[in-house]
Each structure stands twice: as C-alpha cells, then as structure tokens.
C-alpha cells in the first residue's frame, strides 16, 4: 500500500513552499526559516512549549523518590515518582527565589532546594522553609511546585507545557497499537545505552534529514546494508506522526543476531512531531531519538537504546555503538553541511522530490513537516 501524499490546506504558507498554480512541486523552506532568531523564538512559544515531547521511560523512575531531569527549549523540568500519586512532572524551579532544584537523575526522600533549603514533598507541596515560623503571614500550605501535564504510552513518558493541548492519544494516530505489534510489552523495556551529541544546525535541518530516506543509500551504507533493505523503505504520514517502515536486511548481513531478541522482523520508526521519535530495529531493538533545540544553529541529540528487562548480549549492545560510529556520525556531517549551506548567498530553495507513488526516493514526508510547521507558526 503506497503512502498518502499530503497536500497543503488553506492555512498560511511561505510562497517558496507548497504546490503552485502551475502544478510545480513544493520547494524546501527558505533559509530564514532556519536562520532567523525571530522565527526560532516564535517556535519556542507556539510549538515546543505547546506540543507533546517524549522525555523518558517509566523504568527510569520505578521507586518512590526516583527522578530524572529534562529540558524543553530552555525550560528545565523533572519527572518524579511519588508514593501515593504515581508519576508527576514539575518545572525544575524553587518557588522561593528561582534556584534549580534537581540535577541529572537519582533518588530523594524530599526535594530540597540547594540555595536556602526550602523542602518540598514529592508531590510538589512545600513541607517547610527555614525560619518560616517567624515570618508573619507565611502559609506553606499555599506554596507548591508548578506541575506539568504528563502522560504515558507503552511505558514511554511524554510531557506538554500547554494545559489546553489535546490529550496524547489524539496526537499520533494508532501509535500505541502499531508499536505493540512490534514490542507487545513496552513497559518492560530498560535503557542500557545513551548517546548524547551536539549537531551545529537548526533543529528542522536535523528533523528533515531524519524524516526522509532519499539520502540513505548515498550517505548511510551501513544502515541500508546491515539493518534495512533499502528499496523497501517507505514513510507514511498519519496525524502528526511520520511512520517509517522497511523490511529487514538479510540475516547474513545484519549487524547483530536478531533471533534472540524477539518477533519483530522488520524496521519501524515513528517520528512524533516535533521533537521525538521511537525506533524499533529488526529483532525488537528499541531506541528513542530526541531533539533538544539550543538555538537557531545548535541542536542536542539524545539517543537512548532499550532492551527487554535490560538484558542484552555484547553483540546486541555493539549494534548501538556501530550506529553511533556510522549512521549517527554520517548524519552529523550532513546536517552541519546543510546549515552552512543555508547561509550561502548562492542558495535558492529547490523542488522537493515528491513521488506520487511514495517509496524510498520520495520526499513527500517533508511536505507533511512543512504543513505542521506552518500550522504552528500561523497560530495567533
């Protein structure tokens, strides 16, 4: 079944993108979309701070007091497990004088500010502040950390800074059912590897590179020989999700022994607009791909690798290392070159290779990204 090719609606779009009255193919976004500080600041408010963002997995916070911190476009957050209410997410800031509360990950009995020792219960309520009994009118019961919406899907944790945003289940189509077809018990996954790196490019450059495989056979020989059968690769837009599908590479060429991992024989990836992705490699090797924008020309990438019950052979773990040394390293060079090219006075945004039949050499997925971006940027 060929993927549907998205078409532009009546919403706002830049003249350089989208089909024209002459039937010409849509074009890449103009350089200003990637380089202008004003555009980036608008993205922070109208996109990053109002979308569901994948931040981790429930097995990272299994016991009361377990926590981890995360960041969304300059906003420091943390997720913690409480004894009574389960998982909660908060802005990582003391309500006294704005000092950050927690760093990295760990386990605590209470949340203690390292500045003045204001102490909060795990549910965010202020427990005590030094010398509070001598301050007229001080009411600890009225002070609480600012909470954030938190939802779980197959054990994966998502947060959204917008209290009015639609629920997670409405954002990404049949994601849960599709993921469980590959990994039925996602709640049992445990992270065994993390790759953290910086790409000196705009977040959209990195996302666009991730969201098409037109370049794969040219730029990623290891991936297209040892993981997937390149000619079978296709991408299907669904709601605000791009689903990538491919058959597995022949077993004799695979990076790792797939038989011991699980029933998932093919490759599937769900890019979740705007900053998250879940990938399932053949055999059920799961990884998260997360984009953390740090400016118009800088994006931090987190790549987390998960295995069922945290059990993996040395060969299977080596797959993550090989991915970092091949596909990830190759992508860094690509996206940083594109970022430099966007600043060239000689660049004129070219037509996207939108093949009505889809397939590995089509960039119809980039049209979907443009639609979603214009929707977000057109919000009042």
CATH topology of the largest domain: Naphthalene 1,2-dioxygenase Alpha Subunit, Chain A, domain 1
- Intertermini distance: 38 Å
Quaternary arrangement of the chains shown?
Answer: single chain
Strand elements, count: 17
Q: Identify low-pLDDT runs.
A: 1-22
Mean pLDDT: 90
Helix content: 10-25%
Discrete helix count: 8
**CATH domain class of the largest domain:** Alpha Beta
> How many domains in all?
2
Structural class: alpha+beta
- Name the CATH homologous superfamily of the largest domain: Naphthalene 1,2-dioxygenase Alpha Subunit, Chain A, domain 1
Strand order across the largest sheet: 1-10-9-4-3-2-5
Structure description:
By secondary structure, the protein is α+β, with helices and mostly antiparallel strands. The protein has 2 domains: 32-50 and 174-377, Naphthalene 1,2-dioxygenase Alpha Subunit, Chain A, domain 1; 53-153, Rieske [2Fe-2S] iron-sulphur domain (Rieske Iron-sulfur Protein), CATH 2.102.10. 22% of the residues lie in helices and 27% in strands. It contains 8 helices and 17 strands. It has a 7-stranded antiparallel β-sheet, with no helix packed on it. Strand 3 and strand 4 form a beta hairpin. Helix 4 (203-210) packs across helix 7. The longest helix is centred in the C-terminal third of the chain and has 29 residues, at 314-342. The radius of gyration is 22 Å and the shape is globular. Mean pLDDT is 90; it is low at 1-22.
């Amino acid at each position: 079944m060929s993927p549907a090719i998205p078409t532009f609606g009546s919403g706002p779009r830049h003249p350089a993108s989208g089909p024209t009255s002459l039937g010409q193919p849509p074009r890449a976004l103009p350089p200003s979309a990637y380089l202008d500080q004003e555009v980036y600041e608008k993205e922070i408010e109208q996109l990053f701070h109002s979308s569901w963002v994948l931040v981790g997995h429930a097995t990272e916070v299994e016991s009361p007091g377990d926590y981890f911190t995360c960041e969304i476009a300059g906003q420091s957050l943390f997720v913690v497990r409480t004894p009574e209410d389960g998982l909660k997410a908060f802005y990582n800031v003391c309500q006294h004088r704005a000092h950050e509360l927690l760093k990295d990950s760990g386990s605590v009995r209470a949340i203690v500010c390292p500045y003045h020792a204001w102490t909060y219960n795990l549910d965010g309520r202020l427990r005590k502040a030094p010398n509070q009994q001598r301050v007229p009118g001080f009411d600890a019961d009225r002070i609480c950390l600012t909470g954030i919406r938190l939802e779980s899907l197959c054990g994966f944790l998502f947060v959204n800074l917008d209290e009015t945003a639609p629920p997670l289940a409405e954002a990404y189509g049949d994601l849960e059912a599709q993921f469980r077809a590959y990994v039925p018990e996602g709640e049992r996954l445990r992270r065994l590897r993390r790759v953290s790196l910086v790409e000196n490019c705009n977040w959209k450059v990195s996302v666009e590179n991730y969201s098409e495989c037109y370049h794969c056979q040219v730029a990623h020989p290891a991936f297209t020989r040892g993981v997937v059968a390149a000619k079978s690769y296709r991408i299907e837009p669904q709601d605000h999700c791009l689903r990538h599908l491919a058959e597995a590479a022949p077993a004799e060429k695979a990076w790792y022994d797939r038989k011991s991992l699980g029933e998932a024989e093919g490759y599937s990836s769900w890019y979740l607009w705007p900053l998250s992705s879940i990938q399932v490699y053949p055999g059920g090797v799961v990884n998260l791909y997360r984009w953390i924008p740090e400016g118009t020309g800088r994006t931090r990438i987190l790549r987390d690798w998960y295995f069922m019950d945290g059990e993996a052979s040395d060969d299977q773990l080596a797959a993550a290392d090989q991915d970092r040394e091949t596909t990830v390293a190759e992508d860094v060079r690509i996206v940083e070159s594109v970022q430099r090219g966007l600043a060239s006075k000689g660049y004129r945004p070219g037509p996207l290779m939108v093949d009505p039949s889809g397939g590995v050499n089509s960039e119809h997925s980039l049209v979907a990204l443009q639609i979603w971006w214009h929707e977000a940027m057109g919000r009042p």
